[in-house]
Amino acid sequence: QTSCVILGQSLTLSFFIWTLRTCTSCYQSSEDPGAFAVATNGEPFPWYHLRLPNSVIPLHYDLFVHPNLTSLDFVASEMIEILVRDTTQFIILHCKDLEIMNATLQSEEDLRDKKPGKKLHVLSYPAHEQIALLVPEKLMADLRYYVAIDFQGKLANGFEGFYKSTYRTLHGETRIIAVTDFQPTQARMAFPCFDEPLFKANFSIKIRRESRHIALSNMPKVKTIELQGGLLEDHFATTVKMSTYLVAYIVCDFNSVSGTTSSGVKVSIYASPDKWNQMHYALQASLKLLDFYEKYFDINYPLPKLDLVAIPDFGPGAMENWGLITYRETSLLFDPRTSSVSDKMWITKVIAHELAHQWFGNLVTMEWWNDIWLNEGFANYMELISVNATYPELQFDDYFFDVCYAVITRDSLNSSRPISKPAETPTQIQEMFDAVSYNKGACILNMLKDFLGEEKFQEGIIHYLKKFSYRNAKNDDLWGSLSNVSPMWNYSRLLSLKSCRIITKIKEMMTTWTLQKGIPLVVVKQDGCSLSIQQERFLEGVFKEDPEWRALFLWHIPLTYSTSSSNTIHRHILKSKTDTLDLAEKTTWVKFNVDSNGYYLVHYEGHGWDQLITQLNQNHTLLRPKDRIGLIHDAFQLVSAGRMTLDKALNLTRYLQHETSSPILLKGLSYLELLYHMMDRRNISDVSENLKRYLLWYFKQMIDTQSWSDEGSAWDRMLRSVLLRLACELGHAPCIQKATELFSQWMESSGKLNIPTDVLKIVYSVGAQTTAGWNYLLEQYELSVSSAEKNKILYALSTSRHQEKLVKLIELGMEGKVIKTQDLAALIHAIARNPKGQQLVWNFVRANWTDLLKKFDLGSFAMRTIISSTTSFFSSKDELQEVKQFFESLSAQGSHLDIFQIVLETITKNIKWLEKNLPTLRTWLLREDTRLLQYMYLHF
Ligand SMILES: [Zn+2]
């Protein structure tokens, strides 16, 4: 299944087993000099490492591809110009699932004299996805050679390599397109190549197609040749020097809209023909963002064109192929009729992310996948800078909190990993694409920017991008560039140092964040005008009194703080375990981590928290909005770590009644809702009923004043969506009545009525609770050409309380026709969220593991979502045991993922949380109930 079959050579069973055995030992220790490999035909394979040798490097690929969208296969050929660095007798290339027909070699002289190529002996080693080309005579160092390979393959079924995607027209016709997706290690599925990011080369691509199709690739088309029989052949301009994972080509029948940036780059949005009216927002956004990046990086986008294409079947959210970015439809297409403000936020964010990659990732690439954060952390961080500048009305600052908060949950588990971590096998490499690379990477960059100052940070990254253009870089290169600039603010200790010392200081500081896992907790104690501060590793679910609690870690933390007596931002770098700071004047409270820019949590010992809570209740506006969000977040995290009692965190949220900032209200609400779901899932009904009543009472005024419309600022609209969804989920009668009314009108209008987009999902979800409504929604799901709408319908369908309906959804998801396979992981996630569906999907995943693995790679984001979404909400010892057993059985079959440990630790954390906090929650709610009764007595 993973082999490059060489024509005329057959694979016998004994060799296959032999190869597998060899592969296992190589995977465990690829550097073992005693290791050896055997090719599929039984001959010795001359290379036993997972990484390619450096003796030969590629300079240029001439690639010809002819896909047949009827027979679903392709024939292809390539000519790779190589430079030999060290004399060698073989060339090793990556290759997977391709059939090699012929391979020849020419020297420069041969090529000049038009001498035919010498036939090469090809060996295949599927375990490492490699082939060896054995040359008759040694290749000499410093000479160039030309390797020509003819090969063929099938269009893949999944989402990797050169694969098939289908879409349905408004008239119900199914059409096929062929598209590539190569990151991280799948270019080898489309053409034999040096498939490692360090082997950058130029690519000249030719694609043969039928006249009803168009072909797209990284570069603009330079000419089209008409062939006999009506076929056409497009020739694309040669690319700039780039890594193989960024190569892309598509054969499709899509339409486009285009515009030009101020520097003359042609930007086009492509989608299937019925989606013309959904492409305009993406065009406007990408033009604005490309203009912004060119100015910000002070480097022009180097290609003449940029295409953004919405692919009907796509694995990740999007992929940054140079000049030909591919997206899921939901990440690119904005439908004015059905896309909500959250959809707009998401689309803007993904476009900003992929455009940032054209510099971070494409122009400058990490040397190896262990530093993928240099691509992903930066692209995630640049979203913040670019969207703030181009769409200030989206207040993206407030969105960025969740980028950091999402990873803190993971990073505060023992099973977290450092940002830079060795990764060798394709599964390990895929696992690197996670919250630690993306989110933590972005958050520590944000902290560094706050430390250096905006301008110096920008100067540093411009220096980095210019210095390493068309090359590869590693962590130290980045720290070197950022150290060439000195901090903006007058930090006396740093400024007194010689410049070379500053370089080591930045590197010294940042490696404490990239090379060690986890997040620090800063414990502050105020004693008159003196502050004692201390750092330790923050661990959730492991309490200080537990034997496994250890304070092993030490960070260089750029602390910031302000006090009740002045708004000045004070700075201090905490490098040691403990330190003491003197306050200039007497203050009632101190707040650390100003504007929540730092990647650390803060605990205030003694009366610290009480003073802050009192301040919030008396006049919360004396604390900055971003500090108020930070306090709510840290308080609930401290509860999980056993450092704060739950009633104190809940008391803190009481001030929210006076809060007017929508992002802060959303944060507070999310913690309360989380508690409700935890109780509801566990059927702790006395507590969940009281919580429900508390939530509806507490937010009643806010809920009742919401209009069912799309009016207001971005965050007011998002708050409305969440408040009304929660109200309907909790059975608030006026909410259900209004949603039912709108749903009936929508059904009566045969789905033509325009419902405000921000409440669409709520209306559908309420409608899905009756059988007639559910069936009608499923029909509309099939007909809709708006992915934004389909997403909302699918969510609504998954909220049904009827098991047989949920089973039907899973069946449709597995079948992959009505519900696409690309949406299966999200569907399972949604059903797992439904208390009536959680056990169902958990049983399903266990029973269908092998079938799921046929659809998605083990290390893929989809598989990881399926595993974590069906297990990580468990909170009992029996459930923990069940999950443990399942993971053990998988590991015994050879499937191991880092996420297993993360899930087990999360469940253990949930169990401990309940044991410790359930009695407190129960008592607190009863006390609130009494307050509520008193309130009602006084007011009615
Ligand atoms: Zn990315």
Key features?
binds zinc ion; single chain; 5-stranded mixed beta sheet; 32 strands; alpha+beta
Polypeptide structure, described:
The protein is of the alpha+beta class. 44% of the residues lie in helices and 21% in strands. It is built from 31 helices and 32 strands. Helix 3 packs across helix 6 (373-390) and helix 11 packs across helix 13 (499-514). The relative contact order is 0.06. The chain binds zinc ion. Zinc ion binds at residues 320, 353, 357, 376, 379.
Give the helix/strand layout:
Layout (H helix, E strand, L loop, with lengths): L4 E2 L6 H16 L8 E2 L5 E2 L10 E13 L4 E12 L3 E7 L4 E9 H5 L5 E2 L1 E5 L4 E10 L4 E11 L6 E8 L5 E8 L20 E8 L4 E4 L3 E6 L5 E5 L12 E4 L2 E6 L5 E6 L8 H18 L7 E7 L6 E2 L4 E5 H4 L8 H17 L6 E3 L6 H18 L5 H16 L14 H6 L3 H18 L1 H14 L3 E3 L1 H9 L8 H4 L3 H16 L5 E8 L2 E8 L19 E7 L2 E9 L3 E5 L7 E3 L8 E4 L3 H12 L5 H16 L5 H8 L8 H20 L3 H14 L1 H5 L9 H16 L3 H16 L11 H8 L3 H13 L3 H12 L4 H13 L8 H10 L4 H10 L1 H7 L5 H11 L5 H16 L5 H42 L1
Parallel strand pairs: 1-7, 4-14, 20-21, 21-23, 24-25, 26-32
Antiparallel strand pairs: 2-3, 4-5, 5-11, 6-10, 7-8, 7-11, 9-10, 12-13, 13-18, 14-17, 15-18, 16-17, 19-20, 22-23, 26-27, 27-30, 28-29, 28-31
Helix pairs in contact: 3-5, 3-6, 5-6, 6-9, 7-9, 9-10, 10-11, 11-13, 15-16, 15-17, 17-18, 17-20, 18-31, 21-22, 22-24, 23-24, 25-26, 26-27, 26-29, 27-29, 29-31, 30-31
Zinc ion binds next to α5 and α6.
Quickly describe the structure:
Its EC number is 3.4.11.-. By secondary structure, the protein is of the alpha+beta class.
